[in-house]
Amino acid sequence: MAIREILTDKDPALHKKCHPVTQFDEKLGLLLDDMKETLAHANGAGLAAPQIGILRRVVVLLDNNDEMLELVNPEIIAQEGEQDGLEGCLSVPGYYGFVKRPMKVKVRAQDRSGKWFEAEGEEIVARCFCHETEHLDGHVFTEHADRLYSAEELDQLAEDRQGGKDR
Ligand code: NI
To answer: How remote is the CA of residue 89 from the centroid of ligand 1, in Å?
Structure first.
């Protein structure tokens, strides 16, 4: 296993449509293992293959039980409700934006042996399902955010809101 370099959204790989996985072989297993190690090392919530320069439809993410889920050729098959919250990306380090997403999402995906399964996520995990599957079509969350905030600006925003409450 190896930790791979995470590309930023300035890299063309983050803006391309990824190809479906057709070979469920040892190479795919190694890619998934490397992605999981890279995600854990970066302390992130999810990672898509194009973020490490691999244009294949492969995602790893943390589910509602904090377990790392492997999604090959994932598709969102159902969604429900709405949430508006802060989102970030390992490929956009240090910046966050408010993005509307569904509150609940159901995905269909294959595992590393090619077997199809369904998975559900709520709140932050539903957000992650949407964010990561979008990466596979060359999209980054910043496209949905009105503006981006640095961590410092977010601290200031939280303080201002807190101040408002006290008065
Ligand atoms: Ni991302």
So the answer is: 4
Q: Which residues have beta carbons under 5 A from ligand 1 (an ion)?
A: 89
Q: Output the pTM of the full model.
A: 0.93
Phi, psi of 80 (to 5 degrees): -150, 140
Residue pair 95/150 in contact (Cβ under 8 Å)? The answer is yes
Distance (Å) from CA 131 to ligand 1 centroid = 6
Do 14 and 140 form a contact (C-beta atoms < 8 A)?
yes
Q: Transcribe 60-71 into DSSP letters.
A: EEE-TTS-EEEE
Q: For residue 87, indicate whether it is catalytic.
A: no
Ligand 1 midpoint to CA 82 (Å): 20
Q: List % helix, strand, coil for the chain (3-state, nearest 5).
A: 35, 30, 35
Main-chain dihedrals φ then ψ at residue 154, nearest 5 degrees: -65, -40
Distance from the Cα of residue 76 to its chain's centroid? 13
Query: What is the distance between the alpha carbons of residues 86 and 38, in angstroms, rounded to a whole number?
Result: 23
**Residue range 124-136, pLDDT digits in tens:** 999 999 999 999 9
